[in-house]
Amino acid sequence: MSPYVFLIISISLFLGTSLTLFSNHWLMAWTGLEINTLAIIPMMTYPNHPRSTEAAIKYFLTQATASMLVMFAIIHNAWMTNQWTLFQMSNSTASILMTLALAMKLGLAPFHFWVPEVTQGISLSSGMILLTWQKIAPTALLYQISPTLNMKILITLAFLSTMLGGWGGLNQTHLRKILAYSSIAHMGWMAIIMMINPTLALLNLLIYIIATLTLFLMLNFVSVTKIKSLTNLWNKSAPMTTAILLTLLSLGGLPPLTGFMPKWLILQELVSNNNIIMATLMALSALLNLFFYMRIIYASTLTMFPTINNSKIQWPYPQTKTINIIPTLTIISSLLLPLTPLFITLMH
């Protein structure tokens, strides 16, 4: 891709998200979402391949449908309340439509079918942006209308997402599909707490983005897209393999890693609000995610091919800026659990 084209796409992605984050008018927020969608599509089609083109078309059709629902909800709310302000989503029908539309944009179940297929069809770098940056703008809108959301619909979407995100990833062999199902499950954790404690939902999103970003950068760096490719990665680079495994366990929410913090706080918040059954179901669904992460770890470490000699093969890594940022991101995505009291203080 031309550097100038890449620069224009990157600026458009940043401007689209910023417009949605900082706007106070529904029309401007919708425009930001559209800029975001249209900016990433050229990136998804590169390199030119029938699978990437198909993935881009699937993504465009899904996002166009969601955008149509968003606009319908905005117009209905404006018609009923005579308000275009972002915080004035007081009409119940408009609120339900907006929740469903944003759920489709985020890939919450049962609107999740596009996420694994699109992620599998595009490159690792495009998949990284799709599963991290593209979640920010819809989440910001959910956060701003959180007081008017329908609790029953949100809980249903969240529970379905965590369960289907866990079940869907069980029989996958491609890492991009596994990360897509992981994204669906994490969006479910974010949705379940959005009405009770929206700030905690943002913390969950932040930690998810950091961990997923770290994992995608490492996988892109070592050019690994399948579980079977991880089996001989240890002999090529033990430190990189260790970092990948730690980040996977953190995404799964295993203590004492960073990913355990949002799950712990969310379960604590649900229990304190007398949602004990929901907290139990969410905790059980987290085991499904942890299982397929453990399967990857088993495949990459306990089933290594035997080496002929005792020396490790040195992989000729190019000296790029990417390798310098990976250790920092790995530390952040693995070792922030002791800072939990600080995050609790900041949230209150």
TrEMBL record:
Source organism superkingdom: Eukaryota
Stored InterPro entries: Complex_I_Subunit_2, NADH_DH_su2_C, NADH_UbQ_OxRdtase_chain2, ND/Mrp_TM
Any one biological process term the GO annotation gives: mitochondrial electron transport, NADH to ubiquinone
Domain NADH dehydrogenase subunit 2 C-terminal per the UniProt entry, residue ranges: 290-344
Similarity annotation: Belongs to the complex I subunit 2 family.
Role this protein plays: Core subunit of the mitochondrial membrane respiratory chain NADH dehydrogenase (Complex I) which catalyzes electron transfer from NADH through the respiratory chain, using ubiquinone as an electron acceptor. Essential for the catalytic activity and assembly of complex I.
Protein name (Swiss-Prot/TrEMBL): NADH-ubiquinone oxidoreductase chain 2
Gene designation per UniProt: ND2
